[in-house]
Amino acid sequence: DFPDLPKPILSDAFPNRYTGAMASELSAQHDYAAEFFMEWGAAALVREDAANTFKQVLLKWVEQDALPIKQVLKRGSNNKTHALFYFSQVTLLSITVNYAHNKAVFSSEERSKVENWIASRIDAIADTPWVQEVDLDNKKYLFGSLQMAFGIAAGNKRRFDYGVDVYKRAISGLRDDGSLVGDSERWGSAIH
């Protein structure tokens, strides 16, 4: 289902509008990449050719320093940075989960490079107001998932525990009916 392998995403050129509801060229690239890593990561568990393809694509992303998120996220909060924050996490979560499943096909040196690259993206995301100042929000839960997945992939208990804590705070913030204030106030954009 993938006529082309996903090229490393080297752009942060999201339009200055909320692209969660309206697709852009860059959000489509993120969606395509996330889907690729998910499907080829699963196939890599049972097919050597898929494992080799998954590995080569991920190493190319690492070598080209794909997902350039740090500088844009540091510039401030607007719709462009909000979209970058969300889509980068979705793409990175797909990469991280499937890297964890297929870690054995990477050499020790390759694992070090991949894990350093993933960690640098997670750390850039962590250094944003959406992570540092917000506890009950769907993008914070996504960040918790990303931290847990990377904690498992890299054997980093601190990152895993951070992700668990995000979900514990979310659960403690539930109303009696199971809804969350911040998300239910957003109507159609709640927990997506």
Beta strands, count:
0
Strand-residue fraction?
under 5%
Order of helices and strands: HHHHHHHHH
Anisotropy-based shape = globular
Report the major sheet: none
Question: How many DSSP H or I helices?
Answer: 9
Q: Could you tell me the mean pLDDT?
A: 86
Radius of gyration: 17 Å
Give the helix proportion (percent range): 55-70%
Q: Which secondary-structure class do the elements indicate?
A: mainly alpha
Low-confidence blocks of residues: none
**How far from one another are the termini?**
24 Å
Write a compact overview of the structure shown.
The protein is an all-alpha fold and about 190 residues long. The protein is about 65% helix and about 0% strand. About 35% of the residues are buried.
Structural account:
The chain has 192 residues and is an all-alpha fold. Helices cover 65% and strands 0% of the residues. It contains nine helices and no strands. Helix 1 crosses helix 2, helix 1 packs parallel to helix 4 (79-102) and helix 4 packs parallel to helix 7 (138-154). The chain is globular and about 50 Å long. The model has no long low-confidence stretch (mean pLDDT 86).
List the helices and strands and how they pair.
Layout: H1 25-44, H2 48-63, H3 70-74, H4 79-102, H5 108-126, H6 129-132, H7 138-154, H8 157-172, H9 181-184
Helix pairs in contact: 1-2, 1-4, 4-5, 4-7, 5-7, 7-8
